[in-house]
From TrEMBL:
<feature type="transmembrane region" description="Helical">
    <location>
        <begin position="114"/>
        <end position="141"/>
    </location>
</feature>
<protein>
    <recommendedName>
        <fullName>DoxX</fullName>
    </recommendedName>
</protein>
<keyword id="KW-0472">Membrane</keyword>
<feature type="transmembrane region" description="Helical">
    <location>
        <begin position="20"/>
        <end position="39"/>
    </location>
</feature>
<feature type="transmembrane region" description="Helical">
    <location>
        <begin position="153"/>
        <end position="177"/>
    </location>
</feature>
<feature type="transmembrane region" description="Helical">
    <location>
        <begin position="84"/>
        <end position="107"/>
    </location>
</feature>
<keyword id="KW-1133">Transmembrane helix</keyword>
<dbReference type="InterPro" id="IPR051907">
    <property type="entry name" value="DoxX-like_oxidoreductase"/>
</dbReference>
<feature type="transmembrane region" description="Helical">
    <location>
        <begin position="46"/>
        <end position="64"/>
    </location>
</feature>
<keyword id="KW-0812">Transmembrane</keyword>
Amino acid sequence: MLVNLYQGIFGWLERVTDGWFLGLTARFLFAGILFMYFWNSAMTKLGDGFFGFLSPTAGAYAQILPQITEAAGYDVSQIPFLPYGLIVLLGTWAEIVIPVLIVLGLFTRAASVGFIGFVIVMSVVDVVGHGVAGATIGAFFDGNPSSVIVDQRALWIFLAIVLVVRGPGVFSLDWVLGKWFGVQHEAGTKDSKSLA
């Protein structure tokens, strides 16, 4: 009796949330927790004026390539564009474009894979390039859930994994474009298909 009640309640919950809830919730949490963090960080990397997105600041170089920038005496004109300037430029653009795509639910799965890669690279740069200490890095199963690198970024990556696996849900531009281009959507079923 109790087993049937338990299965009935949670089976009903799974059915009514399938196809929309996880994707929408993951994107909402991303927007509420991470979007402005990445947006503000990207804005510190853009040069002056309308075409500032084409000329990252010295701060962008220092954040993305700290050791190379330090070796150049923080004179970014001494750093070759290929490959270093291109890395900084693409990293700056990624910090803007990827979060926007995730929040809008546009090419969500691809953007989420990109976000996972971005966070991994960002973490490696923090550890290797900026030399953050052990307490900031943290560790799994250490009993302290407040480290910036392992604990926080594992949760960031988990949000992206949800979007990669489950998609953005029906409240997304992927779903709208899928309808526009005739991609079959079956919200509320295990066979849901998504454009991205």
